[in-house]
Amino acid sequence: MRLSRRTAAFTLLELLVAMAIIAILIGLLLPAVQKVRESASRTKCTNNMRQMGLALHTRYNDTGNLPPAYSWIDSTPPLTPKPEGIGLPVIPMKADWPHPNVYSIPNWPGWSWAAHLLPYLDQAPLHATIDFSAPTVSKRARDIRILPLAAFTCPTDQSTGQFTVYTQYNTVMMDASTNSYAACFGGGGDLANSPQDGNGLFFRNSAVRYNEIADGLSNTVAIGERAALFAQAPWVGLIDRGTIRTTPGAPVYASMVHPAPCMAMARFGNKTINDVWSEPYEFFTPHMNVMNVVFADGSVRPIRTTVPSEILKALGTRAGSESLSLPE
Predict the structure, then answer these.
(1) Residue 324 domain-assigned?
(2) How far out from the chain centre does Cα 148 lie?
(3) Within a domain: residue 2?
(4) In total, how many domains does the chain have?
(5) DSSP code of 234?
């Protein structure tokens, strides 16, 4: 006599219900995992910036001043009146000549604040290989230009690493590696055309001392985030006659191209952080709702992206005597 054996099985309805439950659980789990990963990345970014703050103070103790936004040697020939000829008057030099094309002004050597901080960021051997009297665009600097450095890379940032620098005419110049951070030029100002006139801690050939920071070290921004996902800039400094431009796919509404001085610096203007109309010379964070900032006292604090532009500009200046209260 044969006994029949019945095998247990899922019905189609039961299978669909099980799949729906699993999908719901995954949907609940993924945001939590992403939140934990972002928290870890932001912690690493904060640690990077703490090291920069410590490096700024250690270098200050050695040199008596903060490093320049970038080094610059004036190589433009002087403008002189035409010589006086027989019977001819001296032709005076015109004072109303148009401002020279910003892309034609040499920006070398161009080594940035980041390059000057290398010995204080456990990169003394790399620093020793740099000839700071030679421009960043020289052949001898190629291997340094393309070298990615974790110290200047935010883990949350995208489009980091090696990228191509273009001229204003969209021709390829050379490759370089990114910096997720920028020195603070100040609150407002034309850092593209007048990179020497910053009211912040960093500008062309700057060497700011602490006694010049009238607003207080704890109220003055030194370094902020400018993510490569927004605008790619070399950590070595300026690429002479190169441009910094909005990264393709950046979360903004306009694509802009700016000259070389904007590679090393950013400023606070009339926009809030991560405004959808932000331009490459402005700060931009890859983090959700906050931007990490190094203050002149070496501390690292988050600034909410909703902080009004008036407060941001006050934080960017070194001696504006503004009265401000930073929202928590």
Answers:
(1) no
(2) 15
(3) no
(4) 1
(5) B
